[in-house]
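Supplementary Note 3. Input sequence used for the single-chain structure prediction.
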Amino acid sequence: MSNRHRTWLLLILLVAFMLRLAFLGSKSIWLDEAFSVWQTERTPNEIWNTVNDNHPPMYYLLLQAWMYFGKSEAIIRLPSVLVSMTGLVLLSLLARRLFNQQVALFAVALLALAPIDLWYAQEARMVLFVAPAALLIALGLSKMGWSGAVLITVGLALGLYFDYTIIPLWGILSGIWFAQWWKGGHPINQLATWFVASLLAWLIFMPLWPHLQLVASRMSGIYVFANIREVTGLPDFGVLLPVIALIFLGIGTAVLAWLTPQILSRPSAGQIVAALSIVTFFLLTALMPIPRLYTIKRLVVTGWPIVVLGVAWIALNKVRKPRPIIYVLITISFIATLVILLAVPKDDWRSAVSYINEHAGPGDITWLDPSHGRIPYNYYEPTVDILESSKNLEVEQNASVWHVAERQPNRPIPGSEVEIWLDENMQLVEVVPLYRLELRRYSPVE
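The predicted structure, written as discrete structure tokens, is reproduced below.
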């Protein structure tokens, strides 16, 4: 790498680090982050043997050790910041190996300013830990040989211990590699390297196979798959469903990876595909600050470095005037990232707890609806007495009730039987709207 490119890379990494540290502890933690902290309150053995969580235990164990430094919002989110920075470095290495320094700088700049990467870099969850693991797999596939095999094994094994979203990513990356392997004369030694490295990673993951099987067996009950089964009349496939989906994902990716270079090599078709790719990337980046679709975004962010790499290569090699495109994509990414930092809040549990502590009187009761709100509430006030939500629960006649309700978009008010009961049996005297929450203070009917 030339001194000029090295200087630009260090500058981009510095800007990325400053953005990810900016306002790191300014936003309240939300339910999923509070759940991460709640898991760390258990013993390591209890965390390891958890069966009621759909994620592997490694992140919780890491966070438990990290919380030796404290449990403030900024501290519990800092590991995600560091992992995000690791992903930027790995993306630079991958891009330089596959393409050149110019593509590497542009790709790293796009990822450094990517609003979706920054959002999860400031969240105390395991999802972003998958992206560097996927980049290690991609680096290994690009190298092959013994060093490549080590990278594939380490990347896949780490990803499996942190989150199961690495599995579809492994299928996608393997599909892309298979297309290139076939075009390169499909040497058997490279196929053996891929197989052995992947098998070794799965063997390293063997202690958690039962947990993965349990999670896979639940997939048929997920909303989307449940509706498909209901419409088609298909049975519950259990563990077989994700295996079939992974096979089709790998085959589909391989076919797409085989056809894409051929399409891009044709001037007219290549220009259309390049334009569609850049416009789609532009729109997705612009829409990322919208604070919804969390499930989809969690999947997207794990493979976003690969998407960024592809867009960077297309913009620099398949567009007639790449410089304006570079400026436009960097500008929209930076604007969307600033919106994420300055204007997109998380569930405001901090304000809810603070307001109740400041205004509640002796004997007042806090009532959470739904009851899983206890987890983020207790992060800020671990000793408060909380009334569990239940239908027709009688309260002391002289006590005021502080009802903390979730307020999801397009959900009617009152939003639960608990809230209906409070409206019918007590007097609503105060309403405090917060982001995705609402405080409602009820007093006994005189």
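The beta strands are 365-369, 386-387, 401-406, 426-434, 437-444. The first helix runs from residue 3 to 21.
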